[in-house]
Amino acid sequence: MTENIKINDTVTVKEYWYGDSVFRNFQGRILKYYENSALIDPVLPDQKDSKVLLGGNGYIVVNFKSLMASGMSIKGIHRLPKFEKTHTAMQSLILKYHHEGLTLKEISSTAKASEPYIKEVLYSNNLKPNSREELTTYEKYIKPNLAQIRRWKHDKVKLKDIASRLGLTSREFSNLAYSHEIFNVHDKR
């Protein structure tokens, strides 16, 4: 239920305290999400002006626990990551380091970005974080033979045959090849 709630949707505020006054069960429109709360443009009963009653710009910040949508409490909001233009350089840097084979912790320390943010960037680009075991297999079998693998691919050798020539299972080789972008994802020979 909570995944379908978007900005500008109408919700019910169960309870909101302003000074000594308590406002209960009124409607409001979601303007913005925060980690555990939302910025609401309230529609108070009797058409009273929220700016007069609540002061300021009339908007209120309400904890998710005090909000209801379609009769159900809102426990949390699942949102897709929002990347703005200011993050483009950081995203490119994270993707570059990932492509070079750095792990999550290594990218975090090098790019000075949080691990959750790095995961969001990777997942939004359909990539999984690199693990040390994957790097070892990649560095051991694929990296030294990269030129030969590309020649085999050009000669239209099947993936399972390339994998057996390298001493890997087909699944291991295809996972490494696609995660390290050796092959196009749509190339499933």
Uncertain runs with pLDDT below 50, 5 residues or more?
76-81
Strand portion: 15-25%
**CATH uppermost class of the largest domain:** Mainly Beta
Number of strands: 6
The helix/strand order is EEEHEEEHHHHHHH
**CATH fold assignment of the largest domain:** SH3 type barrels
Question: What strand line-up does the widest sheet have?
Answer: 4-3-2-1-5-6
Radius of gyration based on Cα positions = 25 Å
Query: What count of domains describes the coordinates?
Result: 3
CATH architecture of the largest domain: Roll
Helix-strand makeup class: alpha+beta
Indicate the percent of residues in helices: 25-40%
* Mean pLDDT over all positions: 76
SS element count, helices: 8
